[in-house]
Write a structure and sequence with these properties.
This protein is mainly α. The chain has one domain (about 5-325): Hypothetical protein af1432, CATH 1.10.3210. The chain is about 60% helix and about 0% strand. The protein contains 17 helices and no strands. It has helices at about 5-15, 40-50, 50-55, 75-90, 95-105, 115-125, 130-145, 155-160, 170-195, 205-210, 215-230, 240-260, 260-265, 270-285, 290-300, 305-310, 315-325.
């Protein structure tokens, strides 16, 4: 019995009867020889961590577009906070931590530059629309690894595809990530908004704060403990009605007072103009995209789909730099 098989045996003996067992995965689209050390979900987690799309998250907006401060969240730090929340819940419920972490680390790989402003721009521009959770699946299935994809397990891809609050993941681990995503961004976006001077702690709605806690630490603790206690020994991930109402009420408050705030979103019109001009440029001049996107066109992908792929993969800084290169006049000088 090799190391992987010993770990799979441990899972069968220790994990919850509702956990996803590595040995019972539905597998990969392209069959592979199993690793002698790592179970399938651990291997998936490693593939995501080492892929280029994951590294680019460090230069993609979470809420505040191209923030100058060092302490504002980026899409990468958001992803790490989601993974930490999710692993805490998964460990307490004896679920599969490797699967949970793989889904959490991969859930936003398809996010655009400039956060949800960029997503809304591509959704308007593309005839087929654009949703970042669908793009995240496309990244791992089609775009990474020079167009070969990461060949992840079915369970990881399902969790990434269904991390939206209105979706229904097939695994308990996917359901953990779905809640962990909301818990993370509600709390860290409050922290960033206070840092930016958009909110004061005293602005937060009293009934929700009374239910969840005054500080970020208290709120995280309340929500995570509630999920653990409500879901223990059950075949679903549950949050109690009162805590869920407070969490979603606080989320709605954030949408009204931060996500649509003029200070945080004052640059959104510029974002749309920038992405719109890049989209039109590369749709008219596809030969100027990198080679791998030309290969996708030759393989029959539509021009709109490929241009979306290219722009969605850009970091904030790369998109701005490319826009300047293509559309901002340069000073003439004689050499």
């Amino acid at each position: 019995m090799n190391i992987r098989e010993k770990q799979e045996t441990w899972e069968q003996q220790y994990l919850s009867p509702y956990a996803s067992l590595s040995a019972k995965s539905r597998g990969r689209e392209i069959p592979e020889e199993p690793c002698s050390i790592r179970p399938i979900y651990q291997r998936d987690r490693d593939r995501i961590l080492h892929c280029k799309a994951f590294r680019r998250l460090k230069h993609k907006t979470q809420v505040f577009l191209a923030p100058l401060g060092d302490h504002y969240r980026t899409r990468l730090t958001h992803t790490l906070e989601v993974a930490q929340n999710a692993r805490t819940i998964a460990r307490a419920l004896r679920l599969n931590e490797d699967l949970t972490e793989a889904i959490a680390l991969g859930h936003d790989l398809g996010h655009t530059p400039f956060g949800h402003a960029g997503e809304r721009a591509l959704d308007k521009l593309s005839p087929s629309g654009f949703r970042h959770h669908q793009q995240s699946v496309r990244v791992v299935e089609r775009l990474e690894n020079d167009g070969q994809g990461l060949n992840l397990s079915w369970e990881v891809r399902d969790g990434i595809r269904n991390h939206q609050i209105q979706s229904s993941p097939a695994t308990m681990e996917g359901k953990v990530v779905r809640y962990s995503d909301k818990i993370a961004y509600i709390n860290h976006d409050i922290d960033d908004a206070v840092r930016a001077g958009i909110l004061k702690e005293s602005d937060l709605p009293g009934p929700y704060i009374k239910a969840l806690g005054r500080t970020a630490r208290e709120r995280l603790n309340t929500m995570i403990l509630d999920i653990v206690h409500s879901s223990e020994d059950r075949d679903d991930i549950i949050i109690s009605p009162d805590i869920y109402e407070a969490m979603m009420g606080l989320r709605e408050f954030m949408y009204c007072n931060v996500y649509a705030n003029d200070t945080a979103k004052g640059e959104e019109k510029k974002t749309y103009a920038l992405i719109s001009m890049l989209y039109g440029w590369f749709k008219d001049k596809p030969e100027q995209m990198p080679e791998e996107y030309g290969r996708m066109l030759n393989e029959g992908e539509s021009i709109d789909r490929v241009v979306c792929d290219y722009i969605a993969g850009m970091t904030d800084n790369y998109a701005i730099s490319l826009f300047q290169e293509l559309f901002v006049p340069k000073s003439w000088k004689k050499y």
